Amino acid sequence: MASAARLVSRLALVTGGGSGIGRAVCQRFACEGASVVVADISEESANETLGSLPNDHRGQDHMAAVVDVSSKESVKKLLTSVQTCYFQPPSVCVNAAGITQDDFLLNMEEEDFDRVVQINLKGSFLLTQAVAQALVACGAPKGSIITVGSIVGKVGNIGQANYAASKAGVEGLTKTAAKELSRFGIRCNCVLPGFISTPMTEKVPDKVINKMMSLVPLGRMGQPAEVADVCAFLASDESRYITGESIQVTGGLFMG
Ligand code: NAP
């Protein structure tokens, strides 16, 4: 996709910005003119992303921040530091922080279920709530909150009861947030990737990847930039009449 400039003078907060899809979203948003807050649990990887961001548009100013999205305290601190730095809340937020802790349902430990739900689902709730509260409090005219779900939340996946539940959850969260927040000009949408080449999928055995690829009509894994392109559309005014929606980015893996 040719680089557009649809996000000039927007402030965007991206969790999980230190790696994979979140990093690609930061890069895409920066190319389109946004100032980007790269937020991640790892300071080192957030700084690495920060160092890769272009600064070609006037007034662009990026920062890196550490956050544990599963902690309300940490999310609150993040929003305070963003507002102290920029004198405004982010008008774009992407919830891309996420983890897997796979095991078969019959063996899955309670802790592994809880941790995945806490980061993937509760983390998206905490960020969505904090960003929405800040936007409403300052009377911002518009906002776009994007949550990275997964096709697995729609169709399930062997070994991922916790992950599938968390990703189905973020769709319900997003639809409800979209209904409640539309009167404040805040849109909420999900992007549902299929199999994307990132550190997260490096853990998946080749045998499983090959089997999945045979089911993908476009015949290959997706790239993080291909998910970021859809996030940029949802962040921009080009999607101004879209809210409560989930857009699949799967190479056609599941249609229906
Ligand atoms: P990734 O490369 O592992 O990136 C996830 C990032 O989130 C990492 O930098 C990770 O840090 C960070 N993170 C983990 N726990 C966090 C926390 N508590 N607070 C803040 N940041 C935290 O994975 P990815 O593939 O880009 O995944 C991004 C999102 O896309 C996730 O929500 C994932 O579920 C979703 N997704 C991915 C795929 C795929 O095929 N890759 C498919 C569907 C959906 P550490 O590395 O230090 O843990």
Fold blueprint:
Layout: E1 11-15, H1 20-31, E2 35-40, H2 43-51, E3 63-66, H3 72-86, E4 92-95, H4 110-137, E5 143-148, H5 152-155, H6 161-181, E6 186-193, H7 199-202, H8 206-213, H9 224-235, E7 246-249
Parallel strand pairs: 1-2, 1-4, 2-3, 4-5, 5-6, 6-7
Bound molecules: NADP nicotinamide-adenine-dinucleotide phosphate.
Written description of the protein model:
This protein has 256 residues and is an alpha/beta fold. The protein has one domain: NAD(P)-binding Rossmann-like Domain (Rossmann fold). Helix content is 44%, strand content 14%. It has nine helices and seven strands, in the order βαβαβαβαβααβαααβ. Helix 2 (43-51) links the parallel strand 2 and strand 3. The protein is globular, with a radius of gyration of 17 Å. 47% of the residues are buried. The model has no long low-confidence stretch (mean pLDDT 97). The structure holds NADP nicotinamide-adenine-dinucleotide phosphate. NADP nicotinamide-adenine-dinucleotide phosphate (NAP) binds at residues 15-16, 18-22, 40-42, 45, 67-70, 96-99, 119, 123, 148, 150, 193, 195-196, 198-201.
CATH-defined superfamily: NAD(P)-binding Rossmann-like Domain
CATH fold description: Rossmann fold
Lateral strand order in the biggest sheet = 3-2-1-4-5-6-7
Q: Biggest β-sheet: count, sense, barrel? A: 7 strands, parallel
Please report the total strand number as a whole number: 7
Q: What's the total helix number?
A: 9
C-alpha geometry: globular
Low-confidence stretches: none
**Small molecules (ligands, ions, cofactors) in the structure:** NADP nicotinamide-adenine-dinucleotide phosphate
Q: What number of structural domains do the residues give?
A: 1
**What's the alpha carbon Rg, rounded to whole Å?**
17 Å
**How much beta, percentage-wise?**
5-15%
Query: What would you call the structural class?
Result: alpha/beta
Highest-level CATH class = Alpha Beta
Helix-strand pattern: EHEHEHEHEHHEHHHE
Instruction: Give the name of the CATH architecture.
Output: 3-Layer(aba) Sandwich
Helix content: 40-55%
How far apart are the first and last residues' alpha carbons, in Å?
Answer: 26 Å
